[in-house]
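hey so i finally got around to running the thing on that chain from the lab meeting. sorry it took forever, my laptop kept dying and i had to restart like 3 times. anyway pasting the input first so we r on the same page abt which one it is
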Amino acid sequence: MSTLLMSDKDTLVMKLLHYFITNQGYNPIVLHGAQNEIWLENLDSEYKIVRIVSNYIHNDEQFNYDILKTKQIAKKIKKKTFSFHIKTLSIFINLGDNVKVLNSENYTFENIDCIGVNDINEISNYRFVIDSFPEIMKETNYNEDGLALFARLSKEINDKSGEDARKAEDVFAKKTPYVTYTLILINVLVFIAMYIFGKGSENVDTLIDFGALAPSNVLKGHEFWRLITSAFIHIGFWHLLCNMYSLYVIGSQLESFYGKVKYIIIYFGSAVLGNLMSLLFVTDAVSAGASGAIFGLLGSLLYFGYHYRVYFGTVVKSQIIPLIVLNLSLGYFLEGINNYAHVGGLIGGILLSIMVGVKYKTSRFEKNNGIILVLIYTAFLIYMGFFR
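ok and heres what got predicted. didnt touch it at all, straight out
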């Protein structure tokens, strides 16, 4: 009965699916109109796309058409996921004898590597596959067969898919952004206090008294606390309104994605690094505002979007990057905008995000590299600002 219910090709498909999903971290891609083929993606792997094709390929013409179709779909995935290079492995399990174009010496068609197998053991004939997936033969050697094997593989695939869904829900679940609300409240209270206890938010003496970034006070007076306090000072109502609206929109998302502790590190770290960058170029004007920190959040969102580009690829290209470019461009053309703090915060936000990591995505190795990069960047800014 087991043999009747599950053919050899069904078994082969299940073994491949189980290996790539549970062992290699691939996820299925839903494609409309793609029949008798399964697409899997792992954007962190050498082969970002793996196709398992059970459709019968009769001859070279049909095979070449399949390659053309694969190129077109891969190109769309490349644009959607903001990837510079998409390498695809196509595994054909139902090739006809008239397919002559695919052989041991001709298996690559631009960025698509192809193999034809009728049994899992035939994968060992393709050295380039073994080099990329060294454990594939070992990990697909099962003791069970028939329905017992099907039941085991199905359960483990479903368990892995359920775990991935739980992780995605954990990351993307809406959470109350208490830190963002607190930051907005502090900014508003400081703004009001500047009118109650000072001469207003546009008075230079009041700005300095409340902690604005006065280069001479920091570079010569060693009032380093201004690197942080200046992020809570705003010059005029519209400056406060624009920054607080941006903080609410961007900060609420980032706090939810990263968690409160990481979010605080990114926010305050970006504010300090943005102000350190400002000190290199703006030496004769008082500056203030949360813009450096907010640009850091934009950089952090860019880094997050890169790791979750299956979900965010289109948003990164159509919204985040244009928003960054537009705001930086306005900073260069409009007077009174400290674009150096924006650039410093943007770079700082990206590096700090690498350091703290994206949940379920960033490895310990990447985090360690992030720590090193943040230290180098900070040391460079301090040296250029204070010791050159």
